[in-house]
Amino acid sequence: MTKKEPLREPDYALILVTFLLLGIGLIMIFSASYVIAEEEQGNPYYFLQRQAIWIALGLVGMYLLSRVNYRALRRLSLIMVLLSFILLTLVFTGLGTDLGTGAKRWLNLGFFTFQPAEFCKLSFVIFTAAFMSSRSIRMEKFWSSSFVPLLLAGAAFLMIFFQPDLGSALVLLAGTGAIVLLAGMPFKQALAIGLVSLPALVVLTIKEPYRVKRLFSFVDPWADPTRDGYHIIQSLYALGPGHIFGVGLGRSRQKLYYLPFPHNDFIFAVIGEELGFIGTTAVLLLFFVLTWRGLKISLTAPDTFGSLLAAGITAMLVMQVLINIGMVTGSLPVTGINLPLISAGGSSVFLNLIGLGILLNISRHCRK
Q1: Taking Cα atoms as reference points, which of 182, 97, 120, 170 lies closest to residue 146?
Q2: Model pTM?
Q3: How many angstroms separate the CA atoms of 98 and 104, rounded?
């Protein structure tokens, strides 16, 4: 880009839908958590205040990234991936901590905790887009093109998988895979990789019996209602009474120590109980608009790097939405992943806003 390159206005529809989702998230986090926060922290606004701070930091980051030319990220992409591996390694040391989920996924840095998997997902999207948009890449030559980002993504996948955090690991692969496919990976190569990877994933899963039970508990959660099926059953008990208009904001019963993590992983169930079909449909429509704007930015980006980067960020966000809502509705196994921009979670909302800031910056360079 030259200094004289004209810049367009950012995608205001994307900005609007982002703020709407953040607003819904703050309202529902308070509604879902104030009882738990009062009992456990002595402050009913505890989770609301923490989320508001992270959102404020994320909005600052989103604004800055929307102003800095996205092409500068190419030079930082490899450093970000290397930093991701360092942070993921530290999770398995004494710095790694469990915040009550039964999995060691966070780094305890003293004054705050941080989830490296969130940074890793965005880093790999940026790195893969930069690598696959290189002029020297020839997609028909697998070992010098797709192999490099897929190998690194596979290594990061395993590190996240063994935390364990299957949801984030799948989102990482979704973002990386979407970019590689859109870059022009031949179908035969994609099929061969799938056939090779599937047996390895099956072996990793059946190696631990609890993973098999967790993965298949959604088929018949009532077969083990007090253990593996508990999360899904309580989520369905929340969604059922919501009907069309819900039981009313703040009146959820399932959030009162029945539904696990009501302000986090299962916040969509609380939305369904309190705001009903109308509320859940409104949230889905907002995510649909976010997806549409992300794809539009990808299609009109001025260069290959911007196009692949926008597609990867959009795919990453969409995959999180699909996994979370699929888990809450009993359509997918319980994997433990946030609903973007709505669930409580500092690392998640901060880095999702950073990703949206990059999308906004690409939109300022898009063709009409």
Answers
A1: 182
A2: 0.93
A3: 4
